[in-house]
Amino acid sequence: MGRVLGLELHDEILRGVVVRRGPLGVRVETAFTVPVGETAAETLRAKLRELGVRTRQAHVALPRRWAIVKPLDLPPIREGDLARLVGFELERHLPFPAEEAVYDFQILEARPGGPTRVLLVAVERRTLERVQRLLREAGLVPRLVDLGLHSLAALGGGGGAHLHLRPEEGELAIVRHGRLLLSRAFPLPEGDGPERGRVLAEELRRSLGALPEGERATVARLTLTGDEEPADAAAIDLPLAPSSPVPSGLQRQLARVGDGSLLPALAIALRRPRRGPLRTNLLPEALRPRPFPVLQLATVGLLLLSLALAVAEPFVTTLRDERYLARLNRAIEGLAPEVREVERVVAGLERRRQELDTLKRLRDRAIRPLPVLKELTELLPGEVWLTNLTLDQKGLELAGFATAASPLIPLLEGSPTLDRVEFTSPVTTRRDKEQFRLKAAWEQPPRGVTEPRPADRRGMP
Question: How far apart are CA 55 and CA 201, in angstroms?
């Protein structure tokens, strides 16, 4: 609900209509016309003050010939990247530099995996700045800036051609299923003679000829607004629509405060930004009205409701929690003997497990000499006498007598169990025997011998 001021800006005149949306519908409150000149802002502000218009929200309709309107056929693309692609295409379709353009677009047709067709609407930046300056100086805030012809054509919905006549020009829009397919402006001869009707018919035929065959077939009627019907309307091939696109109730209200020339201002005032079949808006995104925050308000309402419930029922919640805790305490006290018995059993099992681990470690660390002695007996020659044999986790040490001590090293190196065999002291000769002392590391430790870690091996001499 609220009031909106619709303004139609033309070269020499500014038309305005104030509408109010309420629970019972839309009502036209007042309408006016002021000249456009160097003091247009002051004149508009004074006129609004004179009529008692208090709203600051304004929708502005621009003439069709101030803008560039073109349908663009684009390759398949994600909707999130569509705005960037349209920006890339601007330079090829505008008669002025793309950086000086203010534009918006609306999707006309998009199929998954197929091409996308959009309607581009663009004006020069200085045009929009002129409008913003006028509204700012008049104390108004713009919510929507678009072409008046588009708003007027989309007001009726459906499909067909919409022709808005002015004394010096005509504006034509073609609509299908409530979406614009084409719009253009063209000059007209002055007066209301046959020549004017002939030019209208020729421009209409030219516009329809530019449409694809499937779209041209959907245009079955012509809606005429603006000046009176031309004298040679029979030259136009399409039948005229029986009524104006404006609802009859609003048309009667508008007739009480103005005339048919105010229809574009009324149409732009009735537009809802971001809603309806026509979505283009030449205002920068930062200046556009934000949608009503329904979700945020619902969240705030739920929060307030939660706070009210929390304040209204504190004692009930506290009492419920205390009762629940009391039941838990009684249950815990009933389980206490069983818990102590379980703890005792677990402690006994833990002691047994530790004792078992200790026995396993002692068994794994024990060295079994019989397999080693058997292997040494098979490797050493019969003339070798051992006087000492020591086994540990790292390896073994041998001491004894042999006829020749040097061949013992390759013999022991050939063992799959021993590695790095070397003398630990010089070999000495007693009588006809050589006394030796040597040591060897485990290569494949016998069962029960754990292989030394790399740090232990580096520590060996």
Answer: 42
